[in-house]
Design brief:
By secondary structure, the protein is α+β, with helices and mostly antiparallel strands. It is built from eight helices and 15 strands. Bound molecules: N-(5'-phosphopyridoxyl)-D-alanine (PDD).
Length: about 280
């Protein structure tokens, strides 16, 4: 594991931040997780662009420079020697004696952690996995990838306790996304996913899936669908940087479609897989 703290390489054990860091005290920070396949970043540019947008939304000035961040990501990957890796990036508003208002002066705390990534078990993709549904109890600005992940964490823990892979959020009966992935269904042979508004993270993988659908003439629409649509769907899958494209075949104990990964899901998985090669 290679760690860069504020632009400097540090030993994992000596990578320390202040007790007054605003990320620690207020969840005042944003993050990204980027995947590396065969030594190459998968859409690093899109992750960095999303991070910049999120920073602007929370009035966070990334004072170290986005180009510098990109350089450090590439340098850290090179030093790691990993071919398949996950790169965790976190930026906070820095450390300052605790007060709710922003510090009048402080510099960002920024971290890059490169870890070797293991692919998830093949049978997950081949057979599909289980999901549960939970009420979406998060705030209304889910498009910002903040480190405030308590609701996501609780949801995922519930899924784990239920022996499921993912927790799917619904807001007043409308499916938004999942605890760490976006949700797609197939209804009447048409691919549906929640519109990219403030109720979901605009997943990079989600965008890639929609591009695959467009290029392969798969009918799709970004529209709100209900919990009932979810249960009655022909196919369901989730998408995410580490999740990739993962079929869901059972939700809350109810079988989805034929109980196996569907045709459209499999064609998208195949096309996605090809992009990572
Ligand atoms: N999670 N929705 C949520 C709430 C997420 O946390 C994520 C990613 C996604 C998928 O986004 P992307 O395709 O850009 O990875 C959707 C990351 C991987 C995580 O928290 O580990």
């Amino acid at each position: 594991t290679v760690v860069y703290l504020n632009g400097e390489r540090v030993d994992y054990e000596n990578a320390r931040i202040s007790v007054e860091d605003r990320g620690f005290q207020f969840g005042d920070g944003i993050y990204e997780v980027v995947r590396v396949y065969g030594g190459r970043f998968f859409y690093l540019d899109r992750h960095l662009a999303r991070m910049k947008k999120g920073a602007d939304e929370i009035y966070l000035d990334m004072d170290f420079g986005l180009d510098n961040l990109e350089k450090v990501c590439r340098q850290a990957l090179k030093e790691s020697g990993f071919k398949d890796a996950s790169v965790y990036i976190q930026v906070t508003r820095g450390a300052y004696p605790r007060q709710h208002t922003f510090p009048p002066e402080s510099s960002c705390t920024w971290v890059v952690i490169v870890r070797e990534a293991k692919a998830q078990p093949r049978e997950f993709y081949e057979n599909g996995v289980m999901g549960i549904t939970v009420p979406d109890e998060r705030w209304n600005r889910c498009n910002i990838k903040t480190v405030q992940l308590l609701a996501n964490s609780i949801a995922k823990e519930k899924a784990k306790k239920a022996g499921a892979y993912e927790a799917i959020f619904h807001r007043g009966g409308c499916v938004t996304e999942a605890s760490s992935s976006n949700v797609f269904i197939v209804r009447n042979k048409k691919l549906l996913t929640h519109p990219a508004n403030n109720f979901i993270l605009h997943g990079i993988t989600r965008g890639v899936v929609l591009e695959i659908a467009r290029d392969n003439k798969i009918d799709y629409s970004e529209e709100v669908f209900s919990l009932q649509d979810l249960f009655e769907a022909e196919e369901v899958f989730v998408s995410g940087t580490m999740t990739e494209v993962m079929p869901i075949v059972k939700i809350d104990g109810k079988i989805i479609g034929d109980g196996v990964p569907g045709e459209i899901t499999r064609s998208i998985m195949k096309a996605y897989d090809a992009l990572t090669k």
